[in-house]
Amino acid sequence: MKWASFWVVVIACLMYHSMLYAGGKLLATPGVSQLEGSGGGGIVPWAQLSGYATEDEWSLGAFCSGAKLQDYQLDVCGAQVNFFDRLELSVAEQNFTVAVSNRVIEQSVFGAKIRLYGDVIYSDWPQLSVGLMHKSLGDSAIARALGADASQGNDVYFSASKLHLGALYGHNWFWNITARYTQANQIGLLGFGGKYASKRWHIEMSSAVFVAPQLALGFEFREKPHNLGLGESHWRNLFIAWFPMKSLNVTAAWLDLGSIAGVPSQEGLYLSLAGNF
Amino acid sequence: MGRLFGRVTGLLCIVILLNACVTPKANVSLYHQLGGEPTIERIIDSFINEIGRHPTIIQYFKEANVMHFRTGFIRHMCALLDGPCKYTGDSMVQIHTGMDITTRDFNIVVELLITAMNEAGVSHVLQNQILARMAPLRSEIIKI
Q1: Which is a Pfam family this sequence falls into (chain B) (predicted)?
Q2: ipTM of this predicted structure
Q3: Does A26 touch chain B (CB under 8 A)?
Q4: Cβ atoms A10, A245 nearer than 8 A
Q5: What is the pLDDT of residue A199?
């Protein structure tokens, strides 16, 4: 149902967008929408701000993503607004379903990201941004039961990214590195902090090759804290992103999220659909 | 899963290596890979047509001499792509000073050039390398 209504919105907006479209960036250069709502890849926030707005434009983005794992399912819908390619504000609503008990954990993520320097293609140094995510769980019962200290928390991150034109045998090559300071267990779905918490920065990275102007293949890695002593794994994915036009992108990925809440080998398919207006 | 990633990574390596075998040798200039002067002329002619059709971009060319622009850009592109030409025309800064070109309009022009290269049948791999040569000029073109 959520998907159906999302499609209606996408189609309505596609019809409308030609009138006031903010499309000053080149195709695919803003990337896609990340699970926590930020412009990025699938699991890593990137230095690019979501949407195609340049310095005298603003733009809106909306997305829904789903990940089906062996024992869990994660559904996310969210939106971003990009002001003048300087500030991105985002919101994401996550529903994490535990298949065995059919319990749903809800989390809201509010994000802000500021572009500090550069342009992902043109500047001498990589584009650099700083971001903040405020996360809060709808219900902290499961998080508390697993030993988390809090039901809300903040992530701070710095991201650097660069698109190298024609760098890989004539194909455009993209990379992003993000350093994130976080206390979140499984991105916050299992609460924040815990008995084994150690405060430090975590590294996340993404890389992609454009095999065609509209098609990118890549991978991502996200280092995770293990505050709960449940063997939380680092996350990985292999993705393919398709940009048929600036106002629409579709991303599919194979996720390897490892152990979640003590249940090992959580792998599965990820699908994301996003519109930019 | 670790094994799957290992395999996929291995496969990617093989694809990249195979790709390396069929990639033209680096010592052949972009100018020659492109097909030399005739292709450049076709690109620039398409580009001029595209500009003429674009309501925003044509405004920047109101006082331009199209033939002068055509000759200059053909020479400049030839030189940028390591062809047998020397660009002796006005500098990018001289040409664009006072135009106050925005990031948005600059990117629109890049898109028009990409359209022109598509129309001239230039492969996407070659297009990327051509754009890589032109990209450093951006700071001499916009917002001045």
Answers
A1: Bac_globin
A2: 0.88
A3: yes
A4: no
A5: 84
- Provide DSSP, chain B: -HHHHHHHHHHHHHHHHHHHHHSPPTTS-HHHHHTHHHHHHHHHHHHHHHHHH-TTGGGGGTT--HHHHHHHHHHHHHHHTT-S----S--HHHHHTTT---HHHHHHHHHHHHHHHHHTT--HHHHHHHHHHHGGGGGGTTT-
- For residues A56 and B14, the model is more confident at A56
Tokens of A255: 């996720």
Q: What is the 3-state secondary structure (H, E, C) of A127-196?
A: EEEEEEEEEEECCCHHHHHCCCCECEEEEEEEEEEEEEEEEECCEEEEEEEEEEECCECHHHCCCECCCC
CB contact under 8 A, A169 and B19: yes
* Residue B32 Cα, gap to closest chain A Cα (Å): 15
Within 10 angstroms of residue A84's Cβ, the number of other Cβ atoms is 15
Q: Give the one of B1, B23, B130 whose C-beta lies nearest to A267's C-beta.
A: B1
